Structure formats: C-alpha cells, structure tokens
User: What shape does this take?
Amino acid sequence: MRLRTAATALVAATLAPLVLTAPTAHAASAATPAAPYDFNGDGRADLAIGAPGATVAGQAGAGAVSVVHSGTGGPSTSTRTLLTQNTAGVPGSAEAGDAFGTSVASADLDRDGYADLVVGAPGEDTSSDTNDGVATIVWGSASGLSGARTVNNFAHSGHDRYGLSLAAGDFDADGHPDIAVGATGSMMLTHVPGPITRSGPWYGGTAQGVGAYLESQGVPYLSSGDVTGEGFDVLVTHGHRNGGGSFTDLRNGNTAHSGDWFSYLPPGYVSAVGDIDGDGYGDIAVGNDREPSADFQGVLGGQVTIVYGSPQGRDRDRPEVVLTQNTAGVPGASEAGDRFGSGVALGDVNGDGYADLVVGAAGENSGAGAVTVLYGSASGLTTKGAASYSQNSTGVPGGSEKGDLFGARVVLTDHTGDGRADLSLSGTGENSGDGSVWFLRGTATGLTTTGATSFGPASTGVSTAGSPRFGTALGG
Assistant: This one.
C-alpha cells in the first residue's frame, strides 16, 4: 500500500499504537468473493438488524440480530435467521447488558463466495474486565449464516466496550478484507487484518488511541469506502472532542500507519461513502443531527455535509456541500429537534451510475421522523427531484406518531437484484421502543412506496420485552 501525506493534512497527536506481528503467509482465495451482506451468495444483499436492547432467555439487554433474507421482492421475514449469544455455534452466552447487535459490518472475510457478518457486543463482561466487549464473526454459506468465531482482541487492558462500532474493508491493500473495531479507552481503534478464516492464526494487528477523542466516549461510529479510487478502503471515524462537540476524521484504516495519512472532516455522528458524481472517487456524507445546545458545532434542525473524494483523499479544491432543511430544494424547514442527519446512506437508487443520498430526520414532527432522498449527478449532488417520506406518505405502512424515530438509521443496498439500491430504514422508537424497519424499492425514476413493507421485532423472533430498539444497527 502506498501511503500518502497530503500537504494540507492535519496529523493528530495519538498514543503510540500497539502493534502485533504474525506470519505473513496468506491463504489462497478459492471463489469469487460475495458482496457485503450477501450471506447466501444469491447476488442479493440480505438485511441485518441489530436489537441491542433485546431480552434473551430472560436476560434484559442481552441483545439480538435478525437477518432477513432477500428475494426479488426485497427482504422477507419468511426467510430469516435470529442470532443471539445463545445461538448454537455462537461463542459465549446471552447475559444481561451484553448489547449484542449494537453494531454490525459485513464482508466475505474468508473469500468463499458468501458474505460473513460481524456483530459487536460492547457490554460483554470477561473474567477480568466488566464491559470488556466482544466482536463475533458469523459465517455465510449457501444455506445462510451458521458457525462463528470471536474477532481477535489483543488490547484488553487498553480499552473497554470493544465492538462499540465496526467497519469492514481492505484497509491495507493486500486483497484481503480486514475488520476495524471501535471501543472506549486509551486504545479505542483496532485494525484486525486479513486473511480471516474460520480457524487458524490471526495475522497480527494494531490498536491505538485516536487524537483528541474523549476516551470515555471512544469511537461510537465507523464507516469505510474507496475514497482515493485506488481500490482499497479508508476509514471514517467519529468521536467526541475533549471539551465537547463531535469529531470526524478520514484516516488510513491500517491503524499502524494512520498518522501517515489523516485529515479532519466536518464534525458529525454518522457517515457514509459513495461515488456521487461518478468520477471514480468515493465521496463522504457526514450527518450531524445535534442542536447547538447539544453540540457547539451543530445547527438548528441538523445538517449533512458532503465532502468530495480525490486521489489525495479529501478533495480540498472542491467546496463542501452543506445541506439543511432550509437549503433550496430540500423538502421541509429546519426546526429545533428535527434531527436531520440522524442517519445517512449513499447508493444508486435509480441505476444511473451516480450514488444518491438518503438522510434520516428522526426528530421531525415531535420525533415521528422522516427521510429525504437527493440524487447524484455528473456535477455532484443535486436537490432536483428531492423527495421526503414519512409514515404518513401514501403507500408507507403505519402512521406517524410522536417518538417513532422513523429514519434513525438508513441503508441503501440492492436487495432485489435489479441493479438499483433499495432503501431500508429503522424507527427505533416505534411501539414504545420495540422498533421497526421499513423497505422502499429503488426504480429507474427513484424511490417508490409501491409495495413498501414494514416489520417489527416479533416477526423476526425478537422478544418485545423491555425495549429491544430493533433497528439500532442496520446493515445491508
């Protein structure tokens, strides 16, 4: 991997990374790798739904993940898999407060033609550490997910809540997907390199602190993608700065070298990477849904900022695009508590070759929630044809109620196999904290509510005792 140091990059002071080395021999790939979340290798992304508050065998907050498999009509609960730490083959056991399903990520880690699922349980206790945390790989196959392995964690003493956030991608440009794991503490970001197999050795890795991030908050969100157009992935990290406010950075996902390549991004709490203008460089959408009273860098009603990619990472010659509900062409108006930017996703909804943007506004209308779609083009993101959807939109199941939080999380992925990205979104407050998920199909003319579907935890086997918060994590 060629490491770059941009002339204008700002390098944060970090703790010296903990580096472990291991044999360099790599296993040979035997199949065409599957796309992320295609767990059964049928060419359609499945949907992984985290419910970290779920009660399992009487253990409150043990957590669960529902995997809903996709067909030509999209995700269908008739073919699903429920995963908990009580599932046969999954290491550990379901215990109160484990929060299994707080985060999810996916890649074909063992390159066998089936995507694998990584699940974070940051509340997991070990014999020596309360809330040490754990991340678990569940393996894909022709029949779906089965069997599991715990992700290597070699910095137990330097962090807590391992698995607080997750991302997967080829961060060291060796052709093997890697895993990035967020945590709290002095060593809050870990790079676990591939090849990652069902058994056998782990190939070293690194763990480090991240600049001026608050150790108590750690790295609660990660995203990744090919921003430089060189065929490998970089990492977008989120945290809280000492003294208050949010922090977002773009960095080499191989944390042993992240100080060699680093730049600040607009502050926010969530992000997504996709090529909005079709120039071969991934662009970054950063959502900051906080009010100025909660984050001195926030704005009334929330905002999303687009940063365009380049061979150097962030394109500093191209202005950022800042979007609020007061932006011309964006539906609605900025109001306190709207939480515009609670979720962001990038994907090609209409199949024109440009990534489109979906923004969640979970606080809209007293927390009922809404989502907005804006389309990509050769000149970048445009507000032409922008549209907003809520549970009051014709064709969308349900009805808008205070506190539903519709749009808390959003993902854009092709679930039907037609080459267009479909929208899956969650409302984690639906039915007093049960949570729910909705599916809207992508078409040549954009998103459609025709045939839209919705389902809650009970239809996927998740208990509604307590507040499962179904959809807290969403991957597909």
The chain has a mean pLDDT of 91. Helices lie at 364-367, 430-433. The chain has two helices and 31 strands.
